[in-house]
Specification:
The complex is a heterodimer. Chain A is mostly beta strands. Chain A has no helices and 11 strands. Chain B has no helices and 11 strands. Classes of the chains: A mainly beta, B mainly beta.
Chain lengths: 113, 112
């Protein structure tokens, strides 16, 4: 059984650019959630995908968008990057049958300069 | 009302001692309270969790104490070990969702 894998592990982008982060969910998990963790802070919920549709969203602007694919993998897209978008982006997968059984990936460290 | 307040921000404990981290919440719609452990460069990993219908849950050296009337819950780590040195987050989930609201974290350092 594989865990949650995220790519890339580190990324440096320039303000105004766009970025795509990728996540492969754990085997048997059909729900993917994305969180943003700023340095020294707790993770903040961005949104969740279930059956390829957005199923709940946190307090993030529309320039944060996502996709879920038929194999349950997911992408997080951020347009018009701002310096404050610099953070660790965490993907977590879970099963609808055990909705509290989150498994987090190790994250993608995004630095916006 | 959606916040979970966590204290202390950092904690230094000697090996064999008890580590205690506290969290408080306001939203009575929260119905699931997990604790996560995060090592540098890694994602959070579920440590232990509790629902509000019980006042205590113990798993090995880790115990959650839950006080529903005070809207507080805490993590106790007995016989703390250097390998427990990590950042700990409390969290809460709103009923009928699986969105987690995290506390701000406690950095625990256990010295030999």
């Amino acid at each position: 059984e594989t865990g949650v894998t995220q790519s890339p592990t580190h990324l440096i982008k320039t303000r105004g650019q766009q970025v795509t982060l990728r996540c492969s969910s754990q085997s048997g998990h059909n729900t993917v959630s994305w969180y943003q963790q700023a340095l020294g802070q707790g993770p903040q919920f961005i949104f969740q995908y279930y059956r390829e549709e957005e199923n709940g969203r946190g307090n993030f602007p529309p320039r944060f968008s996502g996709l879920q694919f038929p194999n349950y993998s997911s992408e997080l897209n951020v347009n018009a990057l701002e310096l404050d978008d610099s953070a660790l982006y965490l993907c977590a997968s879970s099963s609808r049958r055990e909705i509290y059984g989150y498994t987090f990936g190790s994250g993608t460290r995004l630095t916006v300069v | 009302q959606q916040q979970v307040k966590q204290s202390p921000q950092s904690l230094i404990v000697q090996k064999g001692g008890i580590s205690i981290i506290n969290c408080a919440y306001e939203n009575t719609a929260f119905d699931y309270f997990p604790w996560y452990q995060q090592f540098p460069g890694k994602g959070p990993a579920l440590l232990i969790a509790i629902r509000p219908d019980v006042s205590e849950k113990k798993e090995g050296r880790f115990t959650i104490s839950f006080n529903k009337s005070a809207k507080q819950f805490s993590l106790h780590i007995m016989d703390s070990q250097p390998g427990d040195s990590a950042t700990y987050f409390c969290a809460a989930s709103i009923r009928n969702t699986d969105k987690l609201i995290f506390g701000t974290g406690t950095r625990l350092q256990v010295f030999p």
